[in-house]
Amino acid sequence: MSRFVYKQSNSDHTLFFKRRKGLITCLIIYVDDMIITGDDKEEIAKLKGKLFLEFEMKDLGSLKYFLGIEVLRSKKGTFIFQRKYVLDLLTETGMIDCKPIDTPLMINHGLQIIEGGDSVDRKLYQRLVGKLIYLSHTRPDMAYAVGVVSRFMHKPQKQHLEAVYRILRYLKKAPGRGVLYEKHGHLDLHAFTDVDWGGDRDSRKSTSGYFTLVGGNLVSWKSKRQKVVAMSSAEAEFKGIGKGITEVLWLRKLVSALGYKPKKSCKLYCDNKAAI
Prior knowledge:
Layout (H helix, E strand, L loop, with lengths): L6 E2 L6 E6 L2 E8 L2 E6 L2 H14 L10 E2 L2 E5 L4 E4 L1 H10 L29 H14 L7 H7 L8 H16 L4 E4 L7 E8 L10 E8 L2 E9 L7 H25 L9 E3 L7
Parallel strand pairs: 9-12
Antiparallel strand pairs: 1-2, 2-3, 3-4, 5-6, 6-7, 7-8, 9-10, 10-11
């Protein structure tokens, strides 16, 4: 790609881009699968020709399916989802005819490792949770629940596996849910953060959560347990804000490198006055 005068992004090393006459061409690669996009049709055609000379490749046309993620386009926008992946997972686990449920996790679930609790097949548990983690790429509604069950990979017990099957029942209710990207006429960056103070009963660590919007569209989200125990809700929320700011700065750097530098200050929202 360097030989083709493409620049490798410092923010994402799998992304290469080239600007020409006010237009841009981008290539993003994962192992041996790639997406080429941009508004420079002439350069896209040239890039394909050069890549065909270097590698044995197949042009699959307009993006419809990539690494288990399905893509639909309409006048309203672009919709990404993993319906086939969900149905395959439900079939594999024998849950295709299960009774659907409204929430992926019980409120105040209290999941923890119980001394002397019934153990379950660790390999089965790890495989199921691994599949759910990948599914979280298009399902922000599952991020927290999947983050919770992934804490018990080293020593799964009966109640943890039941929580995983609850998530599968939740998926049965709406297997085609995903994320819609619409055109809103701006590329402003916003982020929202929140924290569950001391929510992990085993370690009393807090769980940070954030999501970011670019141009009014959801582009990244995460729910992760903090590394140290916070002594107050203000401290926990403050650490959560730090994670959110890190993500905003990364996105700002990435979109700026692509030639779309934000025109306004990036806004980050938090509901804890002490932390603010």
